[in-house]
Design goal:
The chain is built from five helices and no strands. It has 114 residues and is an all-alpha fold. Helix 1 packs parallel to helix 2, helix 2 crosses helix 4 and helix 4 crosses helix 5. It is rod-shaped.
Length: 114
């Protein structure tokens, strides 16, 4: 009995991956084995970098808060320490936004801390 291979499903599966890697450079866009590996590696990078993005953004917030606090002769660590002592519960995202886009509001927070 001849071997039965589901060519329709195989071709559909390959076309789906090849469509997803369209626009990539070199053989990644048209050679099945290379494009499959590139696609899977891309998914790994995407998973990893969704986690790294959170770290990077937190670091950016800290830099912005530090720059804003230093305008009032205070370092980031001293500012955050005094915030928690006074019981002001503003997270880093909000503080960074205030420091960058609303300096008068950030100044009010700094004065409340001092």
């Amino acid at each position: 009995m001849p071997r039965s291979v589901n060519a329709v499903a195989s071709r559909t599966r390959r076309k789906k991956i090849l469509k997803l890697v369209r626009g990539q450079f070199g053989r990644r866009k048209n050679v099945w084995t290379v494009s499959k590996n590139a696609y899977e590696r891309g998914l790994q990078y995407a998973y990893r970098d969704r986690k790294n993005k959170k770290r990077t953004i937190r670091g950016l917030w800290i830099q912005r808060i530090n720059a804003g606090a230093r305008q009032y002769d205070m370092s980031y660590s001293v500012f955050m320490g005094k915030l928690s002592q006074k019981g002001i519960e503003l997270n880093r995202k909000v503080l960074a936004d205030l420091a960058m886009n609303h300096p008068e509001a950030f100044e009010a927070v700094v004065k409340a801390v001092k």
